[in-house]
Amino acid sequence: MQRRGFIETAIAAALATDSRAQSVIGAEPQVAIERSNSGSPHRGKVLALITPHLDDGPIFAGGTLAKLLSEGYTGFFIRTSNDEKDSYRLTLGETVLANQRDTAAFVKTAGMKKWFDLSYRNHRMDNVSRTDLRGRLIFLFRLLKVDTVMSYDPWGHYEENPDHYVTAQAVEAACWMSGGNLDLPEHFEAGLKPHSVSEKYYFARGPQLVNRVVDIGPVLPQKVALIRSCRTMITHMVKDVNDTLAERKLRLPAFTGNEETAAEEFIKAAFVARDHKTGGKYGLDYAEEFHYIGPDQSLDDYISHNAVKL
Ligand SMILES: [Zn+2]
């Protein structure tokens, strides 16, 4: 997430379904509530979380990630940046290593199968070749046979971090181009096949067109554990709040002292409270909001009326 206080994050989340925000976009979407499924309805399907920074997924979509994985998805994490800028008083090199270790902890805590680091320099992704990034994602989507992605909304508004919007746009384009038989055809010589992504859960920290709300009440403890696995980044956020307060001659006792309990209290104040507020808009205890894009069903009706057996 980086460099924004939790108050701003909470305001941005509240704006996400604000009617004014939707009128800017010009549509009133139907909002579907997604609740937990019993059993394993997603067994055999592959999900990829693709974000530039380790903490993006846990903070904005950690509950939905935990829910979908518990319902049978095989999960992969693709981290596009090297997270070299997000720590408190570590050097750039130490920061890369600390966040790499935290990434291993996050993947293990989530129960995902593997992670891939694309390692573009943090905060510099607007200088990355979009076609290079897109091509690497197309390769991974084909290799892993990704059915569903979770990432930043490429149409999210007021996003200030170039790593976020560059990654989001590359993901969106790679999702359909990976199904093209004339896109990067050298992949097929190596044994891969065209494979497009059919479902997308896009989250944003500013206003977006919300059409899917996921009930994360049953998986809230898992979400908190995922956020806690981003130790270096959470410590950075807590210490930044403390420094800002110190300039105003203030101190939050719960955010000082023991690092573990301070992190726990910060997560509650910043993220659990935000998710509770979001849930309240939909009659749920805790929720996450998305712009969801599902499989193309435009021909389903025609096919059901006209298709014959081969
Ligand atoms: Zn971020």
Structure description:
- α1 runs parallel beside α10 and α5 packs across α6.
- The protein starts with 5 loop residues before the first helix and ends with a helix.
- The longest helix has 22 residues, at 259-280.
- The protein has a single domain (32-296), classed as LmbE-like (Rossmann fold).
- It has an 8-stranded mixed beta sheet with strand order 1-7-8-6-5-2-3-4, with helices on both faces.
- It has helices spanning 6-15, 19-25, 56-70, 92-110, 130-144, 162-177, 186-189, 220-228, 231-247, 259-280, 300-306; strands spanning 32-34, 46-51, 74-81, 114-120, 148-152, 199-203, 212-215, 287-293.
- It is an alpha/beta fold.
- Residues 2-25 have low confidence and may be disordered.
- β2, α3 and β3 (74-81) form a beta-alpha-beta unit.
- Helices cover 45% and strands 15% of the residues.
- The structure holds zinc ion.
- Residues 1-2, 52-53, 56, 161, 164 line the site of zinc ion.
